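The pair is quoted verbatim below.
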Amino acid sequence: MGFNVAAFGAGFASKVTERLDEERVRAEKLIDENRQIATKQRLKKQASRDAEKLLAKELTESLSIYYTPDQVADIMGNGTAQAKYALAKGQTYDGKNLDASTQYMLPNNEITNPDGATADAAVPAAIGTFTSRFKKTPKKQSWDTLAAFQINLLERKINAVGDAEELSKIEADEAIWLTQAADLEKAKRKAEKEDGDSTEPIYSDESRRKLINDAVTYHRLSLDVQADISTGIISGIEGNNNLQMAEIRAAADLKVTNFNGFKETQLDSRIKSMVENATVSLNEFAKNKVRQEGTAYPSWDALQAAIANQSIVSGSTYAYQTTAVDAEGQPATVFQGGTYLGEYGKNAGIENGYINLPTTYSPSVQFTIIQP
């Protein structure tokens, strides 16, 4: 039987064609599979991006409950982990009746973390130093630290008397302290409402005494009143009421900070005693000073004009002519004396900032009428 070259060639060609077809199908299948894989990966990435966008939107909306728009933008710019941490902190602050935006905005200073801690325990490493932007949740230990810091501020003021630049820096720190104290007071009041205790002191007896003494010392120095610790001799009080005015000014400052800060009832009671004692001494000084000077303004309005043009300033004694009902029920001209305290007096709780002497001078007392 002879070899059929034509048939062999035709069969070989058929085999080659089939193999090429199989290769083409396999290649198309691979291309299709790769296309499907790429599509799946693209869809997965898109889904991930959509999920991230949705998470970012939800975090932004949640953060906006506790923080300002600028703060939210800053927090979100640090990453998702930081945003979740900030959200948790916001919820914690809110639960303790604290303003989260205030806590986040506080600068890095020595009362940022009043309980002395620098970071929360078990904080994910990815968050890094982001935790330092938040003040610690207040604890009882915080009260003592803030109270001590308040005393430190007064000691700094005592050392800075006459240095306007340094006093300005201290006033800025006082504003920060007052914000923190007010926030902690809100938290304390909320806790008291829950447990029924509203009288727990903030200061120890020693700290309260030092706070008052430092406040008085600062205002004594501001009024050029000097005290020799070794001899007990006080200078700079001859012929004036600066010693008593230092008490009034200290009481005014303490009352304002206590009202806006801790609201401690024990301190408020001590401030009231300071004002009462100073008032007795101021009246004694005014009674002698008014008689010694022998001058009076023709009316209450004239006294107001003298205050307006600063002829009368805080600490000045005064007398003005007015009318009163005599023993027979008839109107009579009398002279009213007293001490003008101004804003210090108002802040110390003295109505209108004036301390009028409890008794008036009769017409028989000679006064020279002066104009403002």
